[in-house]
Design brief:
43% of the residues lie in helices and 17% in strands. It has ten helices and eight strands. The two termini are 24 Å apart. Bound molecules: SN-glycerol-1-phosphate.
Length: 247
């Protein structure tokens, strides 16, 4: 069976654009979660990401269980912290927060969880995670105790992504943070894609088809949307169609 990562590489090679819905177990649970999963199935969403900066009410494990029971869409953990591991998911983005200088998030938490991850059957996708300033302080910036890269510092972003690739990371996820006022700017996406050859996920603050299409044209391979589809689940279909029309 091809791994999710080998599929991602093929998709990138063929210039196909993919759409991922991010589910935060704190914000979407119970019957609401079932509805969102149904909509993802109907809209042929490519990936469902699960994670949150801080889960207080929702159940992470139950969320994964519900998704796996009701959908064949690959379920990928996008962990907000090292507690968010569940072997029923298909893969986990092993995030190294390369835009920051918090050693725990660059390597510390990975050491703590490595043995557990090895025992699980999860596909591990080593990911260079880069926070980009999206116009306001986001939960991830506060919780990670790191400063995002300013959104007009193209060379810093491009060199950071390049260094990540040179270190052997398998993909880059540039995130303006959940609920960002402005998504990652197109110019910055283009500058980064000119430097790297690994797949690029873009998320944070994408609210409509125009922004999603712009990010794809700029070079994103996978568009991730959370907040906007939490507020209006009908967007799932619109975004999926818009992104898939490109490639
Ligand atoms: C956040 O990239 C994700 O880490 C998605 O952001 O919730 O703003 O869509 P939004």
């Amino acid at each position: 069976m091809p791994t999710l990562y080998s599929k991602l590489l093929n998709q990138k090679k063929e210039n196909q654009k993919k759409f991922a819905v991010l589910i935060d177990p704190d914000a979407t649970s119970g019957s609401e979660l079932n509805k969102v999963v149904d909509r993802c199935n109907e809209a042929h969403v490519d990936y469902i990401l699960v994670g949150g900066s801080l889960i207080t009410n929702g159940s992470f494990d139950q969320c994964i269980e519900t998704i796996k029971l009701n959908s064949a869409i690959p379920c990928i953990i996008f962990p907000g912290n090292s507690f968010q591991i569940n072997r029923e998911a298909d893969a986990i983005l092993l995030l190294s927060l390369i835009s920051g200088r918090n050693a725990e998030l660059l390597i510390g938490n990975h050491v703590l969880t490595a043995a557990q991850l090895k025992r699980s059957a999860l596909e591990i996708i080593a990911t260079g995670y880069m926070l980009i300033d999206g116009g306001r302080t986001t939960s991830v910036s506060y919780m990670s105790n790191t400063i995002p890269i300013p959104s007009d510092k193209y060379a810093i972003a491009a060199s950071t992504a390049l260094a990540g690739e040179m270190l052997g990371l398998k993909m880059i996820y540039m995130d303006a943070g959940s609920g960002a006022l402005q998504p990652v700017p197109s110019k910055l996406i283009t500058e980064v894609t000119q430097q790297i050859s690994i797949p690029l996920f873009i998320g944070g603050g994408i609210r409509n088809e125009i922004q999603a299409i712009e990010a794809c044209h700029a070079g994103a391979d996978v568009i991730v949307v959370g907040n906007a589809v939490e507020k209006d689940a009908t967007l799932i279909k619109l975004l999926s169609q818009a992104i898939h029309r490109i490639g």
